Amino acid sequence: MTGTNTEQQFRGVMAECRALFEKKLHDYGASWRILRPSSLTDQLLIKAKRIRSLEVKRESKVGEGIRPEFVALINYGIVGLVQLELGFSDTVDMSPEVAMTHYDRHAQEALELMLRKNHDYDEAWRSMRVSSYTDFILTKIQRVKEIEDLCGATLVSEGIDSNYMDIINYAVFGVIKLTENGEDAALVGGGS
């Protein structure tokens, strides 16, 4: 696989996530604007913990597999970046059009970061297991929780935004690998 293929795959996953995000904006507006940082972190934690649970149990009783949860992590990661930038609001204070402008900018930043890191790490992510992405995402979420508990007063660590970007990129890799391997379809409902 080449970096160019990775870029195309990454863009494809992000286009899928964007389309879903836009549909949810239509249905709910930017209701996520009311999420405080700790609530958003907990939402990311719920999604990542569900992925890990499904990886261990190899069965979903809800009828949704791992792939939709990775998609949710991508979209909530972008929401997190917007919330870090603007702060939370007590009301829905953003039109869908403005929300999409923010979404597109942060999605582009995630792509650019992935391209830089993918160059330096020489596509090492392709040799990793999907379960490792899950564990790395859970680690990043734990780091965000610690940084929040420290009120951002870290000594040497990257900020919350860097952790969100890594969560987005690992989740994109998860979607790519699951799509390539057709693994998620076999998990849901025992293959039905």
Structure at a glance:
This protein has helices at residues 3-28, 37-57, 66-86, 96-121, 130-149, 160-181, 183-187.
Tell me about this structure.
The structure is a single chain. The chain has helices at about 5-30, 35-55, 65-85, 95-120, 130-150, 160-180, 185. With about 190 residues, it is mainly alpha-helical. The radius of gyration is 16 Å and the shape is globular. The two termini are about 30 Å apart. Residues about 190 have low confidence and may be disordered.
Structural features:
mainly alpha, 192 residues, disordered C terminus, single chain
Question: Topology, pairings included?
Answer:
Elements (H helix, E strand, L loop, with lengths): L2 H26 L8 H21 L8 H21 L9 H26 L8 H20 L10 H22 L1 H5 L5
Helix pairs in contact: 1-3, 1-4, 1-6, 2-3, 2-5, 3-4, 3-6, 4-6, 5-6
